[in-house]
Specification:
The protein is α+β, with helices and mostly antiparallel strands. The chain is built from 6 helices and 3 strands, in the order H-E-H-H-E-H-H-H-E.
Amino acid sequence: MLNVSVGDWPTFLGRCFEHLKPNGWIEFLDLAVPYGADNMQASDSSSAFFRFGEALFKGFELLGRDFRAGPKYVQRLRDLGLQDVKETILKWPMGAWGDTDMERQTGQLSLQNFKLLLPDLVPVLAHDPDISREEAQKLVEDTIQDVEENGVTRRYYEAMYVYP
């Protein structure tokens, strides 16, 4: 998640650009949020997965990090003067509900990875003064249950691949 690892995008990208050789390139593969669902009966308010994403955005924002940096990569690279910047959006299922074997395998691995990561994000959620540590922990537990049971709603997040 490069998006929350960088506090000053213009400086970071400027330094990357300084180190590019002629005809060099830079690539990003990162999450794009908010999260999504193929079945939109899973509205933002009824889904712990969606509430978690919004709470995570707010927590990172309070820490000076842009959890929604991914969709801005293309324009930021163009602003640096890079030409022919391309973007590919990949839908990464959360769980083994995909239509192909590859999607189901990707979804299963994404779900396992997501579940391992969530407990470590409780402090980020609890950085919001409106969310106690106990509420953050409960939201994590509810989110895990939500994505484990998401065969009908088909929850996913988008991964952005940006390259010149």
